[in-house]
Amino acid sequence: MAAERINLNQRVAALKNLPEVMKLVWHAAPWIVTASLLLRLLVAVTPLGVLWVSKNIIDAVVRNVKTPGSVHAGQIWFLLLLEFLFAAGALVLGRAIDYCDARLADEFGRDVSLRLMRHAANLDLMLFEDPEFYDKLERARLQATDRVSLLNAMGSLFQQLIGLTALAGSVLYYEPWLFVLLLGCVLPAFAGESHFAFLGYSLAHRMTPVRRELDYLRTLGTSRDSAKEVKMFGLADYLHGRYEALSRHLIRNNCKLTRRRLRWGALLAAVGSLGYYGGYAYLVLQTLELKISVGKLTFLAGAIAGSNASLQSLFSLFSSISEQALFLTDLIAFFAVRPRIRSKPNAIPAPRPIRRGIEFCDVLFHYPGSENLVLRGLDFRMEPGEKIALVGENGEGKTTFVKLLARLYDPTGGKILLDGVDLRDYRVEDLRKEIGVIFQDFFRYDFAVRDNIGTGRVELVNDDSALWEAARKSGVDQLVANLPNGLEQMLGRRFEGGVDLSGGQWQRMALARAYLRDAQVLILDEPTAALDAVAEAEVFANFAQLTRERMAILISHRFSTVRLANRIVVLNGGRITEDGRHDALIASRGQYARLFEIQAANYR
Ligand SMILES: Nc1ncnc2c1ncn2[C@@H]1O[C@H](COP(=O)(O)OP(=O)(O)OP(=O)(O)O)[C@@H](O)[C@H]1O
Ligand SMILES: [Mg+2]
Q1: 402 with 525: CB under 8 angstroms?
Q2: What's the CA-to-centroid distance between 145 and ligand 2, angstroms?
């Protein structure tokens, strides 16, 4: 019982979304919405017109049968033509409405998808690591493209409402209680429909994680990235088995509900028809007793049938809308999520040039949803123009350090200063412009070379000389020159004609992005991990020169190159434990010396 009450509340709450939804629809294409509503208004009143004309025709014919010659042939012809015009007009308008609906669905999909992308881009990175948020995003994404039926339903609802008012008005005018009878018979169907609509939604909601897992399994089974391992480990059967079991579970649940819905729906629809035939029988009796004319009988029978159909579809439209509105709860909830990391109202622009450098003051950090402190009171200073090599074992927090500096996350405790001002006081977009990062899991865009480098600074995406310059700096120019289509060469395997690169070549592509960027702080998180020894030596030899006047942080596990840096900083146990030149650190016999020795020993 308690569950029932919550259901009802949720359903009612979902209807509160409707104004919001209508705003979304209107925003997508105001003109199409207007046109569609006008057309529907016209179509809605045609049934009444048709009925009215045919009533006149029948009455005229009956009169003529009683007293031949009492009706002009011209009069009949005129009425017939009028009825034809009504009927044909409705058909033509119906096509026009279909056209509007199709256009509206396209525009709605486009508009909502764009808003989704824009909104998602502004949200905090940490949200994307939260599975629950991911489910919400996934549902919202589906809703963006899959709510065509909602648009149709809202349009039809409007149309049926007008049509019903017209028809029911006439039924009410002649036989008020007939109308009440109809209403009473249709209400149970409505209650049933909306009940099942709700059950359907809550099932779909519960099944979202299952559906996501299915998607994932399907990708694993069919994607290029996983193909190698799937073959080598012979995982195909294992993956198929999991997919099979999960999808059966999903289908079983759906079937159970559909069957119940079918049984109840059929029963309640039968009750609804009973109302119509009761009314019809009454009218026939009235006509036999000569209380109403034959024309009026057809008119009222038609109007009742029409009202009945309208009412039924009105209720089912209404429950379908409330069902869809329930689904849209997630879309609206998604749009309601606000990023926590964003510019304050009176944020200041990032300094240019940077005069005092960067400072970490007693920075504490743990990832949301984890108790484990990654940074434990980290202190660090860096002057303008300085270049630093940051080292530390796997999982010590080097990448985390960079994420904090780029303000992808905010520290749990302590603060990070740029030129003496807390990062949180700067405009976020501005700050990120000044901090260029190539992450160790940098992205490989399945775009042309031009875009792969140009994403480093989109204003320059059409500036060939700048792109070539960046390619030269990262040592990828030869490769690009040798590609069949040069800068226009599509990379990756997703699109036709794409060329895949080696890990190291992709990395140089990412490096070119970093060099294209006009940031004052350049951070490369293991930029050379996939490069061969010669290429790495080259990158390092150029690095200091290429980052002249900039601040640069380089994260690397290769001590043969790290040792060349002027300042080496060791991250250990959530703090900076060592800081200095190679020789000094070796002499102090700390963590750095130990790690260096281990690597050096392997080469002897
Ligand atoms: N998104 C995340 N959510 C929760 N914990 C995370 C997340 N990313 C990293 N961690 C944890 O934070 C710690 C530091 O990770 P980080 O990636 O900063 O290490 P790293 O020094 O860059 O390591 P590597 O040398 O392997 O790149 C690790 O213990 C890791 O498990
Ligand atoms: Mg890392």
Answers
A1: yes
A2: 37
Question: Which superfamily does 14-336 belong to?
Answer: ABC transporter type 1, transmembrane domain (1.20.1560.10)
Cβ of 398 below 6 Å from ligand 1: yes
CB of 396 within 6 A of ligand 1: the answer is: yes
What are the sequence ranges of the domains in the chain? 14-336, 444-521
Closest CA to ligand 1's atom 9: 400
Q: What is the pLDDT of residue 5?
A: 45
Is residue 394 within 6 Å of ligand 1 at its C-beta? Answer: yes
∠ CA 95-98-104, nearest 5°, is 145
CATH of domain 444-521: 3.40.50.300
Q: Which ligand is nearest to the CA of 558?
A: 1
How far does residue 405's CA lie from ligand 2's centre (Å)? 14
- Write the residue with the smallest CA distance to atom 14 of ligand 1: 397
Distance 525 CA to ligand 2 centre (A): 7
Is it the case that residue 12 has pLDDT exceeding 80?
no
What's the number of CA atoms in the CB half-sphere (13 Å) around residue 421?
A: 14
Is-contact 112 20, C-beta < 8 A?
Answer: no
For the stretch 326-337, pLDDT in tens is: 777 778 888 888
* Cα(83)–Cα(26) distance, integer angstroms: 35
What pLDDT, on a 0 to 100 scale, did the predictor assign at position 535? Answer: 74
Q: Is the pLDDT of residue 88 over 90?
A: yes
**Is 4 a residue whose pLDDT tops 60?**
no
Average pLDDT over residues 267-279: 82
Residues 150, 289 contacting (CB under 8 angstroms): no
Q: Do domains 14-336 and 444-521 have the same CATH topology?
A: no
Q: What is the value of pTM for the model shown?
A: 0.72
